[in-house]
Amino acid sequence: MADFDLAVIGAGSAGLSITYVAARLGLRVVLIERERMGGDCLNTGCVPSKALLAAAHAASAARRAGRLGIRLPEPEVDWAAVRAHVHGAIAAIAPQDSEERFRSLGAEVIRAEARFVAPGTLEAGGRHLTAHRVVVAAGSRAAVPDLPGLRDVPFLTHATLFDLKEKPEHLLILGGGAIGVEMAQAHAALGCRVTLVEHGRIAKREDAELAGVLRGALLADGVALLENTSVAAVEPGPTLVLEDGRRISGTHLLVATGRTPNLEALNLEAAGIRAGPRGIATDAGLRSLSARRVYAAGDIADPQNIGPRYLTHVGSYHAGILARRMLFRLPARIDYAALPRVTYTDPELAQAGMTEEEARAAGQDVRILRWPLAENDRAIAEGRTDGLAKLVVTPRGRLLGAGIAGPHAGEMIGAWTLAIGRKLSADAMAGLVVPYPTRSEIGKRAAATFSLDRLFAPRTRWLVRMLGRLPG
């Protein structure tokens, strides 16, 4: 008999979630983590970045108060207090992800590096462990580009950024994805000089029109944006040497150019587990294509060669797939058609499903429905009218994608995730009753534009006139 029913490698979102379910169901579970419980999300990602953004948004709100007739002095940023808030948020959430909690559920927790030594056999902390099934949820880390001189100068990644004890005077950021733009805005709002360099456009995975709203916000906050700009080398300073010969020097450098899966230490070959640069190759149910008792979840999974989705909620989603398939032997497979994602700038940029560019690239014949925040009563009342809702629908009105740029967009995208996942139409969402006045009305108003042309067409007008002449 194996030592455990289930071995889980990695105590991030995916690993903790599947461990919780399996332990609560009474399985013999071992959870192995080489670093900190909670993984990147708790310690170096979602939680600290959103805590820092909260401080930054508070400073920005104070600066904007004048538009409402409230005049405040320039905010005084106490960097030590901001840092204490960030680490306090981590400490407050940590008990939910702690060793003690998972041991209390019945799981064994081993704080060591895990590696395969044979199919179904792991080595961790000097012990050999056997398990009927193994879930690899070892996560990912910051990818460091192969730039001449980069490794010869001190640089930050998301894993070290929140340990800074002093406020950066001039932060250089390589990369304009979610981490890059969020940290650019946060540090600019907190009084740092910020220069962001991106070889393409910022937020390149997101809808270009919605990303334009984000661009305007960053520029208004004083971020120096260098888009479509390539870096040729890095020199001490740190100094970025651009391909056009320009040189930009700062006090700190943040590298935010993507992520790479944590594969190297696992010794996957010993268990016959196939993997590539994007992670462990799995089927749509997250089972390894080459080792039937092994599954992968979270950032390290590459299902059906479509690549990972570096999002914490994807790890939790994967855990649900694994619970149904692996524990209950029910059919379950991933479906990213309605997967939401949010860039937590101010305004936020939230998307679910396909962007306009993705739909057209896939050969879809689509209609685009829009409604601006400038025509939303709540936005007008609060003096925050930059942004819009944008829907991608088929000619018959089925929702393929939804995007929102505006304050609290991440809180509004959930309804659209459900609508896309359930294959609802724009007309169905136009019938949704939402409270007035709220920004959520912009999505409903955008959906309603699908039928407006038909509603006010000559034939409809004629029909209404005829009906109006009939006795009531």
TrEMBL record:
* Keywords per UniProt: Disulfide bond, FAD, Flavoprotein, NADP, Oxidoreductase, Redox-active center
SUPFAM superfamilies given for it? FAD/NAD(P)-binding domain (SSF51905), FAD/NAD-linked reductases, dimerisation (C-terminal) domain (SSF55424)
Keyword Disulfide bond assigned to the entry: answer is yes
> What InterPro entries does this protein's entry cite?
FAD/NAD-bd_sf (IPR036188), FAD/NAD-binding_dom (IPR023753), FAD/NAD-linked_Rdtase_dimer_sf (IPR016156), Pyr_nuc-diS_OxRdtase (IPR001100), Pyr_nucl-diS_OxRdtase_dimer (IPR004099), Pyr_OxRdtase_I_AS (IPR012999)
Provide the GO MF annotations for this entry.
Answer: oxidoreductase activity
Pfam families per the record? Pyr_redox_2 (PF07992), Pyr_redox_dim (PF02852)
Q: Which residues form the Pyridine nucleotide-disulphide oxidoreductase dimerisation domain?
A: 340-446
> Enzyme class, one word?
oxidoreductase
The residue ranges of the FAD/NAD(P)-binding domain are 4-304
Membrane-crossing residue ranges in chain numbering:
none
Q: Does Disulfide bond show up as a keyword for this record?
A: yes
Enzyme Commission identifier(s): 1.-.-.-
Q: Which cofactor does it need?
A: FAD
Q: Which family does it belong to?
A: Belongs to the class-I pyridine nucleotide-disulfide oxidoreductase family.
- This one is known as Dihydrolipoyl dehydrogenase family protein
